[in-house]
Design a protein that fits this description.
By secondary structure, the protein is mainly alpha-helical. It has five helices and no strands. It has one domain: DNA polymerase, domain 1. It is found in: Cytoplasm.
Amino acid sequence: MATLTELERARLRWRARRGLLENDLIITKFLDRYEQELTDEDVSSLTQLFELDDNSLLDILLDRANPEGIYDTPNIKRLIDLMRQG
């Protein structure tokens, strides 16, 4: 697997910006804490997760729903758990 460039990692922070303030706060807090530790797989998983619409993502982050389909992977679940812990 190819190593992600710094540009690709910077794009993650840009994609994390959300329309709902609640999502933005949760994700920004997570990235502030863990961004330097994220693996390339984590960055890819988060990029995929950020494809969800704001309301669906908020439901998952607030533990009102669980990831389904292509979002139901062990790595995405681990990252969601970290975000839920705040």
